[in-house]
Amino acid sequence: MTDTRVVASVRNAHKRFGDVTALDDVSFDIEENRIYGLLGRNGAGKTTIMQILTGQSWADSGTVEVFGHSPYENAGTLSNVCFIKESQRYPDDFRVKHVLTAAARLLPRWDNDFAELLLDDFDLPTSRKVKKLSRGMTSALGVIIGLASRAPLTFFDEPYLGLDAASRQMFYDRLLEDYAENPRTVILSTHLIDEVSDLIEHVVLIDRGTVVLDDETDNLRGRTVSVSGPATRVDEFTTGHGVVHREKLGSLARATITGHISELERSRARSLGLELEPVSLQQLVVSSTTNKKETVA
Ligand SMILES: Nc1ncnc2c1ncn2[C@@H]1O[C@H](COP(=O)(O)OP(=O)(O)OP(=O)(O)O)[C@@H](O)[C@H]1O
Where is the ABC transporter domain (predicted)? Predict the structure, then answer.
């Protein structure tokens, strides 16, 4: 059996901003040397969680530990953490090379050769002022810092909003190649779920400030199906299964269920005239977060 080491944990975290509840009793662990997808709809609470884990904010109650310590105002712990976000600001007169020099100074595992390679890959001009970079170039700069940091715990909060499809693919490829040689823990927050579904090994899905899924991507993929057909038969078949979503269209219904479905159950579904289809990670995320209640069309 392999030993898994928890590098960060969130226990019963609550966070309010005035009358907005951003986190409502959030608990999950982050294990060493894995790639996580922190997923959820706009405003679900993903950035809030990452800010708390990276010491940029704090939970009103609950416990948050990173490498065994509270990350808040803890320089020792934070030297092992890199947080890349889309809205990163840099001093006005900074050029790309100044940002890279600062990153090299702040990040103990920084690999300059890797950074040079990535600059070339993303075609980023080192002497250009950061404020003169295009949106995509600014995203590329973030991606380069996050990758070359080789930080044991690296967060990417939707850092590729400006990147075109080819550059995003470059990011995924470089991340996977480098992760294979230099394992570390990576947390990706993204809305491009189909694009990253082969990359992420574990999914933490947040909906309205609570964790609604926390599982291995393979488990989710293999154990989630949609069942459709006459509503009464869908109801009959899904009784006893974990139903994450159900929608009704007149006398027809479609339900998304999780859990193992045996061959016997599959043939029972067929004999009931039901159709079973695999569900993509993106569909699962959408159906787990769109509406908890039954939707009627
Ligand atoms: N500084 C703040 N002041 C007031 N409300 C805030 C603040 N930061 C976050 N919130 C609120 O907390 C909730 C969670 O926001 P958060 O930024 O964590 O969501 P998110 O999942 O990262 O969303 P997105 O995918 O759109 O980036 C939202 O309702 C947001 O409006």
Answer: 8-233
- Tens of pLDDT, residue by residue over 214-261, are 999 988 887 789 999 999 999 999 988 888 888 888 999 999 998 778
- The whole-angstrom separation of Cα 200 and Cα 111 is 23
Ligand 1 pocket, residue 40 CB under 6 Å: yes
Tell me: ipTM over 0.90. Answer: yes
In the chain, CATH 3.40.50.300 covers 6-208
Report how far residue 100's alpha carbon sits from residue 122's, in angstroms, rounded to the nearest whole number.
14
Ligand 1: distance of its center to the CA of 39 in Å?
14
Find the helix or strand (DSSP H, E) in which 221 lies: helix 217-223
Task: Report the topology of domain 223-296.
Answer: Alpha-Beta Plaits (3.30.70)
CA–CA dist 176, 188 (Å, integer): 13
Residues of the chain with CATH 3.30.70: 223-296
Among 3.40.50.300, 1.20.1050.10, 3.40.190.10, 1.20.1250.20, name the CATH number for the domain at 6-208.
3.40.50.300
| 1-11 per-position pLDDT tens digit | 456 799 999 99
Angle at the Cα of 198 (from 197 to 200), degrees rounded to 5? 70
